[in-house]
Amino acid sequence: MVHFPQLPFGLPDDQDDDKPREECGVFGIFNDADAAAHTALGLHALQHRGQEAAGIVACDGEQFHSHRGLGHVHRVFKSEKNTIRLEGSLAIGHVRYSTSGDPALRNVQPLYADLAFGGIALAHNGNLTNALTLRHKLVEQGCIFQSTSDTEVIIQLMARSQKVSVEDRLIDALSQIDGAYSLVVMTEDTLIGVRDPQGYRPLVLGSHGDATIIASETCALDIINAEYVRDVQPGEMVVINRDGIRTLNPFPQQGRRFCVFEYIYFARPDSLCEGLSVYEMRKNIGAELAREAGVEADVVVPVPDSGIPAALGYAQASGIPFELGIIRNHYVGRTFIQPTQKTRDIGVRRKHNANRKYLEGKRVILVDDSIVRGTTSTKIVDMVRQAGAAEVHLRISSPPTAHPCYFGIDTPERDKLLAARFDVPGMARVLGVDSLAFISVDGLYRAAGLPGRDNANPGYCDACFTGDYATRLLDNETPSEMRVVTRLNERRKTG
Amino acid sequence: MVHFPQLPFGLPDDQDDDKPREECGVFGIFNDADAAAHTALGLHALQHRGQEAAGIVACDGEQFHSHRGLGHVHRVFKSEKNTIRLEGSLAIGHVRYSTSGDPALRNVQPLYADLAFGGIALAHNGNLTNALTLRHKLVEQGCIFQSTSDTEVIIQLMARSQKVSVEDRLIDALSQIDGAYSLVVMTEDTLIGVRDPQGYRPLVLGSHGDATIIASETCALDIINAEYVRDVQPGEMVVINRDGIRTLNPFPQQGRRFCVFEYIYFARPDSLCEGLSVYEMRKNIGAELAREAGVEADVVVPVPDSGIPAALGYAQASGIPFELGIIRNHYVGRTFIQPTQKTRDIGVRRKHNANRKYLEGKRVILVDDSIVRGTTSTKIVDMVRQAGAAEVHLRISSPPTAHPCYFGIDTPERDKLLAARFDVPGMARVLGVDSLAFISVDGLYRAAGLPGRDNANPGYCDACFTGDYATRLLDNETPSEMRVVTRLNERRKTG
Amino acid sequence: MVHFPQLPFGLPDDQDDDKPREECGVFGIFNDADAAAHTALGLHALQHRGQEAAGIVACDGEQFHSHRGLGHVHRVFKSEKNTIRLEGSLAIGHVRYSTSGDPALRNVQPLYADLAFGGIALAHNGNLTNALTLRHKLVEQGCIFQSTSDTEVIIQLMARSQKVSVEDRLIDALSQIDGAYSLVVMTEDTLIGVRDPQGYRPLVLGSHGDATIIASETCALDIINAEYVRDVQPGEMVVINRDGIRTLNPFPQQGRRFCVFEYIYFARPDSLCEGLSVYEMRKNIGAELAREAGVEADVVVPVPDSGIPAALGYAQASGIPFELGIIRNHYVGRTFIQPTQKTRDIGVRRKHNANRKYLEGKRVILVDDSIVRGTTSTKIVDMVRQAGAAEVHLRISSPPTAHPCYFGIDTPERDKLLAARFDVPGMARVLGVDSLAFISVDGLYRAAGLPGRDNANPGYCDACFTGDYATRLLDNETPSEMRVVTRLNERRKTG
Amino acid sequence: MVHFPQLPFGLPDDQDDDKPREECGVFGIFNDADAAAHTALGLHALQHRGQEAAGIVACDGEQFHSHRGLGHVHRVFKSEKNTIRLEGSLAIGHVRYSTSGDPALRNVQPLYADLAFGGIALAHNGNLTNALTLRHKLVEQGCIFQSTSDTEVIIQLMARSQKVSVEDRLIDALSQIDGAYSLVVMTEDTLIGVRDPQGYRPLVLGSHGDATIIASETCALDIINAEYVRDVQPGEMVVINRDGIRTLNPFPQQGRRFCVFEYIYFARPDSLCEGLSVYEMRKNIGAELAREAGVEADVVVPVPDSGIPAALGYAQASGIPFELGIIRNHYVGRTFIQPTQKTRDIGVRRKHNANRKYLEGKRVILVDDSIVRGTTSTKIVDMVRQAGAAEVHLRISSPPTAHPCYFGIDTPERDKLLAARFDVPGMARVLGVDSLAFISVDGLYRAAGLPGRDNANPGYCDACFTGDYATRLLDNETPSEMRVVTRLNERRKTG
Fold it and tell me: Residue C289 in 3-state DSSP?
């Protein structure tokens, strides 16, 4: 799910600002006595996919119960009351990334609507590339939108569909839509999971006793001790109700394009994506990077936490010792006092500190997963230098990020991307490193067990590296005056 | 505005529970540099018409700014920030009566929607009697409702109207609607006030320098030192924009039916309704009551605060001294500790206390404005007896309330109304008074300067006393399964 | 209880700003199954004596349970949890007037301390005139004060007393103290009420079944249906425990000096003070005022609510009709939006509105209880003029307030008092009235049934009118550098 | 700082429950334009030493400004307003570990008092072993305590000291005290750091331009880019003011007893304690453990995060590959929904998940830092087994924890300690591992570069392993009825 661009976004954490951000995680569970509680745990396991808001809708067979709020899952669902209220054996949930302030509350998913046939709730991970165009058409026809999220287009299309069954209305709606979506949808008696034909975002199927689960990642199954059954396939619609589990494939087939950045950064290392271990994939990339861009050095130091697996792979392949030369403070909140410019300049130390003993006088290979704007990398390199490193060689476990994502990842505009502004030597100069290397695109595919990138049918979406977008981007051609999604600037208060 | 009946309502204050409750107040102002601040003050003056929630939408010519919240006006708009944010010279606002809890937030008015022509906001005092029927038809056609209030039907009808101008869309929508409505509507450059053809609820026009104001009562003009121009007429639509003020009369004419209970209880005593002083009208009723139901006594004691003007009228007409024999504590909140049944039994003293010196040994004429369930009256009579009154004669400045209201007043179901369960002598026994008298229906009309009730064309709505409803009540015939407005039980959290 | 003058005080409500303010109310109950709940109700009845903060300490015979907070009683004790927690059959409580912000929390009474013999809690209405002097001496001796209130001096003196019993320690402490105090004190098994030798502030004894109650006013007995037994006498200490009720008179006798302003303004009209009905006293003053300062007019109009009884008395004595020519809006919060100067100028209408019909063309006698700064009176007179009054004659039911109070009332500094700046004709000019009259000092005593003021032994404290202070004011002679009570500016947060 | 044992402690996080907990961190800065902001950052770096509450007191040379609150540092100081208010170039701060609920607020440090010479603030890391005894004596003498923390005894003793200067009063107070304390103290112009004669808890001196800093750990210097100067020595008092830095050694010398658990678990790995790198020390222990208790295996897996350095040391020494076979979810809040027993049973997965690919079929060496109750270890071993591990060998980088700590660490009572209930083979059975080994006491000293433990003068406090307490434990001999510190159960509300 994404918001349309004219909405004000919250200021991100100083450091995470320099990472691309996953925009959502979804979870659904059918036939479980503790449906809402287990959904809350599942969302907690998916917290890395969205830290700003969380919501759950449960159904007891007649009434739907919803609780949504801003903040981390454990805050939104902190008191027992909140989930006990959410009665029913069927529930879906959603986490989304961070914007700030009250107005966003209307955008917190799952979205819910009373349609002619009954209630429906829907949670979305991904991004629709023609939502704006569809929205304008629908408003012309008399539709009133309550949120500013692209996801609501799906529900409005379902509401107006001439089809009878929920599945048919959903297929009808999705047939009009372009872009990336992994959805969980629920009615009063049915749970549906569906993935767009190219499978941009992950979605897995699990089971736990008599319960069936659909979730963004396998770690959300593990947290409740559920079993991983299989991935929902690109273009597949899984319909789960009392009659069992049915699979539909209602869309024309298209080439797979699973987001390779899920392996590099987004997904949790303990998850399996498309059957592959994310942690192993990261180690493989690190090892490949050691082969592609080896350098003599004393120590391999990850930028924690995300650089750790690739650094371990690099260290094991190169034989150079792995050390935690940088220590991360996990107590980091988004808001913090920084009254003067002077204090702001030292801000980076809030999250990372040099472990001086392991850097001083050393030739350091620093391993990180990606460079977006380069602001954080600059500060980290600086800190390592100040700690006395003799040489700093930066190795990045992704190719240069030079293109924006339109499929569910929040990236800065192109002219903010360091790799769009400089070539590799230029970037090395900006960052102040002795050497800089990125994994090659082919190296990335090799780490996934392929011989290299098959340009005709790559199998992964790597558009942020290659610019090769596999879906049309209709909204991108929309004139700017049409991009006004709402004229309302709203603030609500719960008294 | 009313909510549909299947929503849970908050527990009312122990005492007010026994009064009918006005359901809303509206305010709008055009061409005022302090539009939002003056709207907040206007709503504050209308606070008696709705204590549960308040909201303002302002427009700066391009963007709409909204702030809505639960609680009294001075709480929702307590910090300067909240109104300073609401920029623009055009604003409308709304107060509504009390339900409790978060879920209601989506129902707090003004409602806002982005329609094809731009933004629109709307605030409603009244109650539509065919809203449920229309809502079901609209949902069948693919409309998604965001609130459970009847008011949203108006906006959905406007969204789907084939008309071009805002006025025509609004006329189109209202033409399909039955019931009571005094509305303020705003677009980015226009303020519209409109009153249903029978004029059930009040609506007045005022001016203040270059600004034009529409409000439920004249007290909302007084608070900002604005001048009262005239009442908006039943069936009149007043359109205010840069071109000036235009009057439309788009609906077929019907007999006036201004709510007589506005005079008896709802409106503020310092307001003029339909040109009559509310305070004077109440005194007239008291005087009429003294003539109709005089009794020998030592003292006339009002049940404060609402019984005071009628008691003054009674005292002046009868020559019996007026005394504040009951003192009201104005520090009364809705929630309060009452841990045991024993404490609960003495609850009434929280609001009223006997001024013993003026009751002991006295023959007391107690004057109140109405009896609904009779629970509070019983406690008050009891308290007066305990204080040593020799006799208690209860005089009520309205006829017996024996029928529910469908035009914007919250009354209990018919079988809860004391006057629907007992005749006057029976009520006297239940209440434990020495004598009981209500003003007659004709007496009420005499107090308003008429010779009595003209049954062919009474001029006021007195349906709660007479059962004579002047508008069809379509929703009342709706089968109960259709009354389910939403299957969603929602709770939001602002983190 | 008062705070020392160097603490920042909250901004008062715009209008109440122009009234002297009572500074506290106290309540205690012994041997009651619902002790804390009944204390909360008692405090609610005393809310007019202090709106800023409230607290209760209860004891279950072993442990003391305390809950204290800022805001009105019904807010501080709004959930059942808060009082259910306060277990025990013995409780005391306190309300105090308004300062704003968090820091004040440490000053919210009852104060509690663990002394060598056990726990003790104490609540105070009044003001000590040598607290500052004692405090400095105690700090020199190694005492650490936790609050900035004068009341803590009493507890510190008790802690250091060489006496054995609680009563003796309390007598020991109070013997060192000058000024006004009506105290309720509790240990784990005893409730003590004590009033200073001159009896500046009220304190009454009541009973309710087996329970014994001590409270500031009788209205706090009425709310729980308790019986008024008698006033605690000046200089009397009442000790209540399982052995019954004992009376001690440990202090040298001094002339009575009950605060006459309690009758004029502070006490609730339904209370008895020193056996006299407050409402009747106010009516008597009004009648006396009619005799002293009669004028031909059409209507007697009170400034509501406090001017009502005197206006009634005036009207009855003069035969001129009483009318509510000014309507008060009771929904007034302390904080409210007033973004511009223009809006600020119209601020007064938030609380009072003219009932134009009863003022237009009329010769109006306006009755109010007091004039402090004169700011509100000016606005009210203005409003009455704007409503078309032909003449405005202002009658005040107290003598001119020309001197500050040191015995528990918050008055502005002398040079802010209108009566200290102008004579009566000068005040009339400032206020813009056709005539102005105050009740005479002797008239006040006549209203109380006395022949006039006995200057040798007046029986009431009327120092704010006469400047005749009956207690030495030691702290007033304290050099300013000694007035620094704490160097700490504190803010706490409950996370 | 510790609380006396009769206070109710909050429920700890499910997992951390099974770690000993550091009880405080302190920070002070002199002559810094951003004193409060830098103190907040310093406390943030010390967050691991106490997550429950945080406070700062700053002084502008005349007035002290305090802000204290419950929760993490970034929450307590989340808005800029909170620190901007804390003006002055001198500040001290404190973090403390977790108890829950409001009552604790009065215990949040720094403590502040107005003494005869002026204001003083104090923050304490450690635990006094005769505080209870002193407190009872002081109460007998008339002292009133406001908190229930042992720290207040120091301030009360200072208040009553006959000495003149602050230093002398502080020395006078500390001379009467037994136990562990690292203190920062401030007056309006002086910052003092002092460490108990045995130096149980850490305290370091740093500088940053013209500013001087005292902090619990060097990581609090790094975060503001300050330089580490040296450790404050056991028994040393450092007095910092405009005249410079003076060192006093007012106490009789005793043997050093720096807490060895600081190296094992408490201190941050990027800190230096007593000049040694904590990270290196942990790696050394791991390596020593590999030598002492080697075993054939396929993979070394740390229990993250605290087990990582020892596991790295073990892996490097043994040559067995290091893998993150357990992934930790850092988004863990204290409160979370767990509505049913079934869900509660799977609770551990909230924090840790198996990285199955690296455990399945493997012989796993699991490295953790300590075992307290053993509850978490059992769950982790279970999870590793469920993930398919062929063998599980648990290695612990501390000796068995068999004795409670009285010097500032929160440990469970002795009969809850697994090592007090079972021998090593017994523990292995309980935990379900194939083998279990702890580092030996001598091994621990070897890791610190010593030949082994010198029993006459060990140089470290290892009482939790050996039961060898180097300070008398007077309060432990106190009869239980004297342990009642307050009879007050308090709740405050900020309205």
Answer: helix
